[in-house]
Structures are given as C-alpha cells and as structure tokens.
C-alpha cells in the first residue's frame, strides 16, 4: 500500500485489513523466525533465562523461577545492578561516545548526552544522594519534568539501591502528598519548574504544598530548569540546591550489588477504589523483561537506531521504554520536554526529521489529535528515517491505525500495537514486527513465553474465536511483585477473580486467526488519553466539594481522549445549580487529583438511578450520556429518575 493522499483513510481501510511484515524488514529483524514462539513455549523458563544471560550479573542465579501462586520470584540468588545494565557495560565496551539522549526543551534549547555523560551524571547524583544519607531500601519520590536529570535520578537511585517512585508532574499536591506518605519517602527530588505549552509549571510550589504533613521527608533536592524558568526561590529549610550538592560530586560511584528480587521502584496507578495502588517491581525480572521486549518488539539496533518514546517517565511506559529497556539495549533516544503542538502542530514531525528518528512509539490519543490537526503537518517534513511505529495505552481505532501507517509511516513501517500495564511492567501482547501480520485495531499475539487466555464469567476457558475476560496464566519476569504496604490487596485485586490466573481488568476477543482484540476495562477504571483513572477516586473528589451531596462518575466515549469522565452530581440543599458552581466543582477535581481527572462535564441532578438496595446503576448513566436506548431498568427503585436525567443531559448537549 503506497501513500496516496487522494485516498481517504476509509477507502484504504476497506481495501486492506491485514498487513504482512515487509520482506525487507524481516530480512534485518532481530526476530524473523516464527519458530521463536514454539521455542519459548517448549520451556519458558529457559527462554527467559536466555534473556537474563544477556545482562551483566554480579552473581548468577541459582534458580530461574519459584512460583507459589500468586507469588513469583525470578532469578533467585542472582545479583546485579540495574544502572550497570543501562550504563557501565556500554561504556566498558567502548561505546561511551554513543548518544544516549538528544534532549529538546520546549523553548527549543537542546543538549546531547552520551552514555559516558549519563554514567558520570548518574554517579554524581548517586553520590549526592548518599551525602544526604540516602541508602539501600530508602524511598525517594521524584516529581520532575521530562529532562535528562529525571532519567539520571532514576538510575542514581537504582545504583545505590534506593527505591524510587516517580510521580507524573501533572498530579496535584494532594495526589503527590498521598504518594509520599504511602511510601514514607525520606527525600523528594524536584525542579523549580518546566515548560508546557508555552507556560511555566511551578513544580516546586506543588511540592511545597504537598510536603505539609509529610513528616518522613528530610530534604528536597531542587534542580533548576533554566531557560527562563525563574520560579521557586530557594526557600524551605529542607531545600538543597542541585548545583551545590550534585555538581561538585565525583563522577564515579560503585554500584550496589542488588538481589534480583530487591525492590527497584514503586509506581502508583488507579484501581477500583479511591486509593491508588503502589505497584512495585524488582531488579532482575523487570530488567530482563524490558530488555527482551525492547529488543524484539522495537527491533532495536543500537548502532543505528534513534528511538523516540513520547511518554513521560512519570508513567510506566517511560520507565520501561525510555529508561530501562532501551538504555539496557544501549540505543540512542530522543527526549522532548513539552507539548506536541507547541509552538505548532508539527513539532513532533520536526523532531523526527531533525534527529532522524527511526523507531517511534506513541499513544492512540496523540495519533487521533494529529489526524485532527491535519495531514499537512507531517507532510511538510521528511519522515523517511522512520522504519517502525508503535502504539500503547488504549485500543487504537482502525482509522487511526491506517492513518498512522500511511501518513506517518509512509505505508512502509510495520506498526506494533502493544498491550500491557503498569503491573505487567513489560509489553505482553504485541506483534513482532519481522514476523507478525498486523491487523488494524488488534494487538495480535502474546509475546513469546507469555500465556494469555480468555475466560468466561464462570472462569471456564473460551477456546478458539470468541470473547471474554483476558487473563494471564503463567508468570513472567517483569510482573509486579505486590502493592506497597497492602499485600492483601495484591491477591484480592489480581488473583481472586479467577483461580490461579492473573486478571488485568480488561475484556478481549480473539478472532479465528488467533489475534487478540483488547476491548477495554471491564471494571470501574476508565482510560482517559491512555491514562488510568478510577471512577471512585473522581467521585470522592466531587463529594469533597462543600456543595456536593452525592456523585456518580462514568467514562463516556470521547473522540480524542478515548474516554472522558462525566460526573452526575446531587447538590446539597441551599446550593443553586449555576454554571459558575459547575466550573468550580470541575476545577476542584483537578486540584485534588490533577488536570487529567477534570470531568468533561458535570450534570446536576436531583437524583441518581439506584437499585432497591441503593447501588448506583452506572450502566444506565452511561446509556444516558451516550444517548443510547436505556438498558434494563427493571431493577431500579424509581424508574422516573432516569427520564428526568435524560432530559437534563439532552439540554446540556443542546
Ligand atoms: O486497559 C488496558 C489499556 O491500558 C491499561 C493499562 O494502563 P496503564 O497501567 O496505565 O498502562 C498503560 C501503558 C502500558 C490496560 O489494562 N491498554 C494499554 N495498552 C493497550 C490498552 N488497551 C488496548 N490496547 C493496548 N495496546
């Protein structure tokens, strides 16, 4: 299929539904033999051990796997350090001059950091952390912009065995405080500010506010962004200037030898309750899983590829596919600080052209935005360096897939639609670009060694083509080891729905060819622009507002974001349903959780549809919001409530 601007994406979609791997791609691919699946299947422990052997271990493991469901331990007795895999071994092999990051700030400032530069930087930060008394097992919270110092701090913590926890810099002070308290952090690392869509975000102010009530935090290390960011004067008694502490440190720091099962990091993600879960991952298995998947899924060639994953390091995608996987592979990457449409909607394509990006990984929500902004933006740039494209975070609609394939990939680049989660740590269902025939909208097959199944409501396996709950029926090295401080929740959330199987919370179907199609969450979690949000968390934020008596939240279909939160709110008596109050309540949610949780709409209603036992029927609210015929209403305590709601919703729409 060649690039033909005259053809609409729709006609292209109708013409072709399956895209075999281009022979020239297969000829050079890291994985080109379909036999790799059988090989991994025959002995999955040996398969993963083969990948682990490609890392540098201080001490080799005694045993590959101990599986005592639902607890797995990988590479028992093995010792290594994650930062060594990402830095020292490349430098030691004479590849210190290879660029690790081409950094581009939003205002246009640039920096080039080689692997040797990164190693020196990481050692300085590590020595700085040690000077502050931080050591093995201590928790360090990072609230930083997308700059190389964030990657450095992550790797510096790994180097000294401190457990790091990155909080995405769009989260509010309240969310940041909850996370700091949950993990009992001793140190917070932040920046004075950063650039986003032409504006300075004052990160330090958020940290200062978050710190009220965080008794465990002893120091706040502040890196200064420069480039016109002038917020956050030195101030608090706990503040330490990066330039004073880190810069003068020696550029060598011996790595701590970590047990394969020592905790590497904690990353919070939303669940079905109001409290986010602190998912934790360990050194040996996580490194092995992200190293292997980066190598095979992104087909990385360290001597010639330029990889760009557009995620923020604050999410799992940035942990696994900016820091650990690609760096363990020793590849060159692009890191960009700001918004994709600043100063113009072609900023990404300008960067692809400038740095000759060859492998590009982004989210469907971004692709839909690019489509909306217009074909002329990518068309203005030379994108011929691209050879492979990827997506992650939510189901990709076939129109967006084909647009990406044609307008960005020039019809020649395979697309890897990768399904995975914060909890899985690594890509789990995905094409292998030199082997798999891709189908727009399908993540295709489990990665070699991974076992996925579909179960029905009663836990019976669905064979062949069909739909059901997606489950993972075999441990994998990068799997989460638990939820920080709440081991019971680990078992209850993931392992209690189906006996002996991990339940990720997604529904899926499988076609006659064996391809998996992820249908989305089947629990009270929504996916907004590829980010997980909990219905309960937003509901708690709504009722936290003094005017709100009761609230129900649902995720409704949204053209760009995939889903968007909509709140149905009952006001306390004495409050008038004014547009100003509506706005105030929506902002309140953003202040409590972060901008991404701000409801798209808030609908004031005198009542909510409930069952006779008082349970809110969100399914019916969704039908109302999406203008669908109402589903079964026979269990409603008061069917009249819905008619009122529908009328209210339609006036809002009009
Ligand atoms: O619902 C699935 C969706 O994102 C959820 C995981 O979210 P999070 O832990 O924030 O990680 C996102 C980045 C790995 C999944 O349960 N999801 C992720 N990737 C895909 C997807 N849904 C469909 N297709 C995907 N490729």
Task: Report what the structure shows.
- The chain is α/β, with parallel strands linked by helices.
- Among the domains are: 111-256, Rossmann fold, CATH 3.40.50; 528-653, 2-Layer Sandwich (GMP Synthetase, Chain A, domain 3).
- It is 33% helix and 22% strand.
- The strands form nine sheets. The chain has a seven-stranded mixed sheet with strand order 5-4-17-16-18-19-20, sandwiched between helices. Strands 7-6-8-11-12 form a five-stranded parallel sheet, sandwiched between helices. Strands 21-22-24-25 form a four-stranded antiparallel sheet, with no helix packed on it.
- The longest helix has 17 residues, at 115-131.
- The protein starts with 8 loop residues before the first helix and ends with a helix.
- The mean pLDDT is 94.
Distinctive features:
33% helix, binds adenosine-5'-monophosphate-propyl ester, GMP Synthetase, Chain A, domain 3, alpha/beta, single chain, 7-stranded mixed β-sheet, Rossmann fold, 654 residues, 5-stranded parallel β-sheet, 30 strands
Summarize this, please?
This protein has 654 residues and is of the alpha/beta class. It contains 21 helices and 30 strands.
């Amino acid at each position: 299929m060649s690039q033909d601007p005259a053809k609409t994406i729709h006609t292209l979609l109708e013409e072709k539904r399956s895209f075999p791997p281009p022979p020239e791609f297969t000829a050079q691919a890291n994985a080109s033999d379909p036999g790799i699946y059988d090989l991994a299947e025959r002995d999955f422990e040996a398969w993963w051990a083969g990948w682990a052997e490609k890392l540098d271990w201080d001490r080799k493991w005694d045993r590959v796997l101990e599986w005592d469901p639902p607890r797995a331990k990988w590479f028992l007795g093995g010792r290594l350090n994650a930062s060594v895999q990402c830095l020292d071994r490349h430098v030691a092999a004479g590849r210190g001059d290879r660029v690790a990051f081409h950094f581009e700030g939003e205002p246009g400032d640039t920096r080039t950091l080689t692997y040797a530069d990164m190693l020196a930087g990481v050692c300085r930060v590590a020595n700085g952390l040690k000077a502050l008394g931080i050591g093995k097992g201590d928790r360090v919270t990072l609230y930083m912009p997308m700059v190389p110092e964030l990657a450095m701090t992550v790797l510096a913590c790994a180097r000294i065995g401190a457990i790091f926890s990155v909080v995405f810099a769009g989260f509010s002070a309240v969310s940041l405080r909850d996370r700091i308290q949950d993990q009992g952090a001793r140190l917070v690392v932040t920046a004075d500010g950063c650039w986003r869509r032409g504006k300075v975000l004052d990160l330090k102010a958020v940290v200062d506010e978050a710190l009220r009530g965080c008794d465990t935090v002893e120091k706040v290390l502040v890196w200064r962004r420069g480039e016109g960011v002038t917020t956050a004067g030195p101030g608090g008694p706990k503040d330490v200037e990066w330039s004073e502490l880190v810069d003068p440190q020696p550029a060598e720091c011996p790595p701590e030898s970590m047990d394969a099962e020592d905790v590497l990091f904690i990353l919070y993600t939303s669940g079905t309750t109001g409290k986010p879960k602190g998912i934790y991952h360990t050194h040996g298995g996580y490194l092995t899983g992200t190293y292997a998947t980066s190598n095979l899924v992104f087909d990385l060639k360290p001597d010639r590829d330029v990889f760009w994953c557009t995620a923020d390091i604050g999410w799992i995608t940035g942990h696994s596919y900016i820091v650990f996987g690609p760096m363990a592979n020793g590849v060159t990457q692009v890191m960009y600080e700001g918004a994709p449409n600043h100063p113009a909607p072609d900023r990404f394509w300008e960067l692809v052209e400038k740095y000759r990006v060859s492998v590009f990984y982004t989210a469907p929500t971004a692709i839909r935005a690019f489509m909306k902004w217009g074909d002329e933006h990518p068309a203005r740039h030379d994108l011929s360096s691209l050879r492979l494209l990827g997506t992650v975070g939510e189901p990709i609609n076939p129109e967006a897939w084909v647009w990406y394939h044609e307008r960005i990939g020039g019809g020649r680049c395979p697309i890897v639609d990768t399904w995975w989660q914060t909890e899985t740590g690594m890509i789990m269902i995905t094409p292998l670009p030199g082997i798999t025939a891709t189908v727009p909208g399908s993540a295709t097959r489990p990665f070699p060694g991974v076992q996925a199944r579909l179960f029905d409501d009663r836990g019976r396996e669905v064979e062949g083509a069909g739909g059901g709950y997606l489950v993972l029926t075999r441990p994998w090295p990068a799997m989460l080891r638990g939820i920080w401080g709440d081991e019971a929740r680990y078992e209850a959330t993931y392992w209690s729905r189906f006996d002996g199987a991990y339940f990720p919370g997604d529904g899926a179907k499988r076609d006659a060819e064996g391809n998996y199609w992820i249908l989305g969450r089947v629990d009270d979690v929504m996916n907004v622009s590829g980010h997980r949000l909990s219905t309960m968390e937003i509901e708690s934020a709504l009722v936290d507002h003094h005017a709100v008596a009761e609230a129900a939240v649902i995720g409704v279909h949204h053209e760009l974001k995939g889903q968007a939160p909509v709140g149905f709110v009952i006001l306390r008596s004495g409050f008038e349903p004014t547009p100003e109050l509506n706005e105030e309540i929506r902002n309140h949610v953003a202040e409590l959780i972060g901008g991404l949780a701000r409801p798209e709409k808030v609908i004031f209603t005198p009542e909510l549809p409930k069952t006779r036992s008082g349970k809110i029927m969100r399914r019916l609210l969704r039908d109302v919001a999406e203008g669908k015929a109402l589903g079964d209403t026979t269990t409603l305590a008061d069917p009249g409530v819905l008619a009122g709601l529908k009328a209210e919703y339609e006036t809002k729409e009009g």
